[in-house]
Design a protein that fits this description.
With 302 residues, this protein is an alpha+beta fold. The protein is 44% helix and 19% strand. Helix 1 runs antiparallel to helix 5, helix 4 runs antiparallel to helix 5 and helix 8 runs antiparallel to helix 9. The structure holds zinc ion.
Length: 302
């Protein structure tokens, strides 16, 4: 909890509206490349979690995570993955305006407290509202779902049904049970974005939290190495990469990161051993072959 709070305040200080706009512009120009199948951070703002999964609420545990929109209303909300909007609600309580997206893998993503919907969804909602003559609608679209693509703007964050604007984001399994999105892909993906923005310390905090949940996840360990290396902690970076490789010995990007860190420390022999270890498993890999070349021509030490 304290870790989250620290992260929250670090982000809050670091992210003025201008910084958020810049980060968003950069994000739009060069979309982040999270691991295949990972959920996209669904809000066009600097990644910041303002409410945790499972938090105590007056009559139920919090079923998702709250993503901070920096008090803004109208921040674009993205589809976290390819899927189909098969249910939506407009209400003055609960999640206010909300979208339910069936993902390709059978899970459902819920986006709550929206200030509005993307035009193609809004059209359907307004038609139904006119037909019923009221704002409150629950629309089951299972028979004619609205297809959406990962990263497509599906709505806008707001404060419908709540008092402070934010995006409520929830992942449910096939049975409709809420999963913890910040334990799994979301934390990892969030850390990936922070690493891309070179916010090493914030990424490290998030990854250490994720690691306690999934200690054997090579992707977390690899990202942990990147964050440590970014902070200049070479030995800890090396240990994280080696732990990642032990769990995923065919990941060329981890060899690449480890070799880079070793070469930066002037440890050419250790780097050579790592490359040869990789080439024994993947003898034809072009990246490993070019790494062998880079190690051979690197300075022996400094
Ligand atoms: Zn919430």
């Amino acid at each position: 909890m304290r870790r989250r709070l620290v992260l929250f305040f670090l982000c809050l200080i670091a992210c003025t509206a201008a910084a958020t706009a810049t980060a968003w512009a950069r994000h739009r120009r060069r979309p982040a490349a999270p691991p295949t199948g990972a959920l996209l951070y669904p809000l066009a703002a600097a990644p910041t979690i303002s409410g945790n999964f499972g938090q105590y609420r007056s009559d139920h545990p919090h079923g998702g995570v709250d993503l901070w929109s920096f008090l803004q209303i109208g921040t674009p909300v993205f589809a976290a993955a390819d899927g189909e909007i098969d249910y939506l609600k407009c209400s003055s309580t609960g999640y206010g305006r909300s979208l339910y997206e069936k993902l390709a893998d059978g899970r459902t993503a819920v986006y709550g407290h929206l200030s509005g919907f993307a035009p193609k969804i809004d059209e359907v909602v307004r038609r139904e509202q006119r037909r019923r003559g009221e704002y409150h609608v629950r629309l089951d679209l299972a028979r004619r779902p609205i297809g959406v693509k990962r990263g497509e703007v599906i709505g806008y964050a707001g404060d419908a049904g709540t008092d402070v604007p934010h995006l409520h984001f929830e992942i449910r399994d096939r049975r409709g049970l809420a999963l913890n999105p910040d334990d799994a892909e979301l934390a990892l993906n969030l850390a990936g974005l922070l690493i891309e923005r070179q916010q090493w310390a914030e990424a490290l905090q998030l990854l250490q939290g994720a690691l306690t949940q999934m200690p054997d996840n090579p992707e977390i360990l690899n990202n942990l190495g990147l964050a440590r290396a970014g902070l200049g902690q070479r030995e800890q970076a090396e240990a994280a990469y080696r732990a990642a490789l032990a769990r995923d010995p065919r990941s060329v990007k981890i060899y690449n990161n480890l070799v880079k860190t070793l070469l930066e420390a002037g440890r050419r022999d250790a780097a050579r051993d790592v490359v040869e270890q990789g080439l024994r498993l993947l003898p034809a890999d072009p990246l490993l072959r070019s790494l062998r070349q880079a190690v051979a021509t690197a300075p022996a030490g400094r």
